[in-house]
Amino acid sequence: MAIKTLSAKAAAALDRELMSTGAFSIDQLMELAGLSVSQVVHRVHPLSKGPRVLVAVGPGNNGGDGLVAARHLRHYGYEPGIYYPKRPKNELYQRLTKQLEDLEVPFVDDFPAALQSADHVVDAIFGFSFSGEVREPFPAVINAMAEAKVPVTSVDVPSSWDVDEGPPKSGVGSNFHPDVLVSLTAPKPLVKHFKGRHFIGGRFVAPAIAKKYDFEVPPYQGIDQIVEVDRDGHKL
Hints:
Elements: H1 8-18, H2 26-44, E1 52-57, H3 61-76, E2 79-83, H4 91-102, E3 107-108, H5 111-115, E4 120-124, H6 138-146, E5 152-155, E6 180-184, E7 197-201, H7 207-212, E8 226-229
């Protein structure tokens, strides 16, 4: 059985529905997504493997998920660092940034240099709405993640990948294959190209929504916000 996935168009429609008839706010969805990402990092990279987690943050919602994940990781005892070169003026992102500053989480300007001392990387640059060319300063960041000697966890979509077609055939990101992927709400079609550990984070979706968009809510355990699945979408 092939894993059921959400196209970019369906994912965007689902987000709109969650924030309208679903009655969720963007803050809530970002908080739930970031919490899921933080739990995945804790699962695949416990503190005993090293506390320094470098989070590469993009200018949109995917980046917001990364900021939330970093806050949770800080409370778990990790030592996150944030690379956030394109900061939107949106109040939500400013609040997320302030929360991290209050926790004395450092913001770094030189990603390759910060990567040298990192134990794990979170890729929260681009999400399912990304298309076209990777713009500065992110090509060098994605290339550095592709060549990283430490594990990389991508949020929803590996940055530079097409949500439906997977990694680009050439150029930036063509050799970027993260170790871990956290699919938010439901997997996207690109998962057929992904070879690493795959988690789903979406323990808030009403059954009627899942039925309408034709995906399955996996069997979450205990208080987990995440579940690891195999290539066919079965719980591991």
